[in-house]
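One example given next:
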Amino acid sequence: MDSKGRRATRSVQARRLVGDDLFEDAPPRRLRDALRLDHDPVSNVRSHRSTSSAATLALPSSSRKEVRAVATTDLTSALDEAGVSYELLPHAHTESALAEAQALGVSPDDVAKTLIVKTPEGYVRVVLPASARLDLRKLREIHGGGRHALHLATEEDLRRDYPEFELGAVPPVSGRRDPVVVDLSVANRESVVIEAGSHDESLRLAGADLVHVAGAAVTDISADD
């Protein structure tokens, strides 16, 4: 794929997940050690590797649903092992966090979206309110790196490396082990709704419990309005 094709694919994910008006950019500062993002903070979440990416993509629709059901079970098992209270919330099929909030009849501030950011060291999952925009400048202040060192994972990346989840529905934890950064406003919420791996089921838990189970770093990563 040429550079134009990669940019187009990346822009599709950006529009799909968080809308066209995504980033607030400014020159980065290096605060890499502040949240230790080059370490793996999710040691208490089991790695789920029940099938290879290629094999999963080749499965028929019914089998893919079974794989995703296993991924949801992996998520709830991690919560059970941590002694965390949660509630599974089935709902009509949705394609965005804002639509998810509408389907559940809750405020967008009560729903958190998980974005997958690609870094030179691997992926980072960032969790912020459905109504917020990710400020890559703030994330660079934590992680370090130049202007082009951090960017959203493409749809191709998500299909290849997160095959057990529906596109755009990767939860903050479960599946592969990734560092997690949770926006301060999400961490402080009494309860928050997150993706559970599919577009027709969500999960509600306390913000503090999400941070605990994910071993997440907590900081302000939302764009200032």
Summary: The longest helix spans residues 61-81.
